[in-house]
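for the recovery benchmark. tokens below, seq after
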């Protein structure tokens, strides 16, 4: 029976849905994480009786038809790029973006990636790096004898050197925007890379031309809402169970038909 294959596609779709939800829940405390959702479409139909066909020589038209669907398929797991809650940490190199924009990161192979995770550190040379040691762009080096580091809303990084009363500017953080930020490719480590779907990055300065502002001493939390994820998980579980029930009922019907033919 067709129902066996149709229900099987439904179970596979809900299994993937649960995988997406579980990843969201697993990353609910991941800095800068953007939740995903699974999107589905129905599969092709067999048109046993097509709507609108002529049913007699007098021109009668069929008002309804018989269309048998073949199930469901997953078409995408887009990321929801909404702003996450900003959590105060008071760390000098904990930096959050409020609004549009990603921090630009240089990977070991010389290419660039982008992130909303602003939990930066200093390496042995005093350069601002990510937790994996990747360089924050543009390269900013903080003197080893600096007693204080401040970052203003425009991303300007200043340090205080012993024996001086005036803060010294050592660089300015820039932000990158994308026409379609949902088209970015996740590569792990809280990083994204550009794709043809995202478009090329538009680099600029915080607070200018639609870019967000930068807040020192804050980190952006994941935009995962626990209540929503649990609700979606329960719905996915129920849908999976109902598809399994369809398979069980179809199998019972096939057994009944087989027994009737044997008797």
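predicted aa per position
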């Amino acid at each position: 029976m067709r129902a066996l294959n149709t229900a099987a596609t439904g179970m596979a779709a809900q299994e993937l849905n649960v995988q997406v939800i579980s990843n969201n829940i697993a990353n609910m405390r991941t800095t800068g994480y953007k939740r995903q959702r699974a999107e589905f479409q129905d599969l092709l139909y067999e048109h046993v009786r097509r709507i609108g066909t002529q049913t007699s020589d007098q021109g009668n038209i069929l008002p309804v038809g018989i269309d048998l669907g073949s199930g469901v398929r997953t078409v995408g797991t887009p990321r929801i790029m909404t702003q996450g809650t900003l959590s105060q940490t008071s760390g000098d190199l904990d930096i959050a973006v409020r609004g549009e924009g990603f921090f630009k990161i240089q990977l070991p192979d010389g290419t660039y990636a982008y992130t909303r995770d602003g939990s930066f550190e200093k390496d042995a040379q005093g350069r601002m790096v990510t937790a994996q040691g990747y360089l924050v762009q543009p390269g900013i080096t903080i003197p080893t004898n600096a007693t204080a580091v401040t970052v203003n809303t425009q991303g300007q990084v200043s340090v205080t050197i012993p024996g001086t009363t005036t803060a010294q500017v050592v660089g300015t953080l820039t932000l990158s925007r994308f026409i379609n930020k949902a088209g970015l490719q996740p590569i792990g480590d809280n990083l994204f890379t550009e794709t043809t779907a995202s478009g090329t990055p538009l680099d600029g300065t915080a607070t200018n031309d639609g870019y967000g502002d930068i807040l020192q001493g804050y980190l952006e939390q994941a935009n995962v809402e626990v209540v929503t994820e649990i609700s979606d998980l329960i719905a996915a579980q129920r849908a999976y169970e109902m598809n399994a029930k369809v398979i069980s009922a179809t199998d019972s019907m096939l057994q009944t038909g087989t027994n009737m033919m044997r008797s």
